[in-house]
Amino acid sequence: MTPQETSVKSAEICRLAPVIPVLVIEDAGSAKALAEALVAGGLPALEITLRTPAALEAIREMSRVAGGVVGAGTLLTPADVIAAKEAGAQFGVSPGATDRLLDACADADLPLLPGAATATEAMILLERGYTVQKFFPAEASGGAPALKAIAGPLPQIRFCPTGGVSPANVASYLALSNTLCVGGSWVAPADKVKAGDWEGITALARDAAALER
Description:
By secondary structure, the chain is of the alpha/beta class.
């Protein structure tokens, strides 16, 4: 998969809904129900971060949910890419980008949202052909004003800002011409997941899916 092909696929995934839930799964036993709740609320693209021992099993469980498009986040190494693809991930997300990681995703035919926080990082990725990128960490890197400023000299790049995006600031990101969608964890709060409050999570997802962009 070429960088151009991965950017086309990444854009398609980003356009499925205004928000991609960023999920840290502690118990794979709740993964399928969580995915069903989010998809029912109108958020089909799901990012499961590879930060817990349960993450890969959670990807396997969520991949069985009809209508879901499951991705693996926090991809750091080629081994992460292989494991995520074998678990059923349909796309990947990384906090940054290295040549080895980009090559591994290309070899595995895994569409990737590579992370960039500065104009230089975004330009390096653009030079390789990546026109769809993750802006991370969004709030710590200047937030919506910084992303708006990047659009001036680099209008051909579209972003999924992630990191500190919340109901309080999400509208400022979605209003930008270079934002396709955002990544956020607020749609699946840990207390609701632990309590099995799937109706509550569906309600949060429905609100997020209705956001204007």
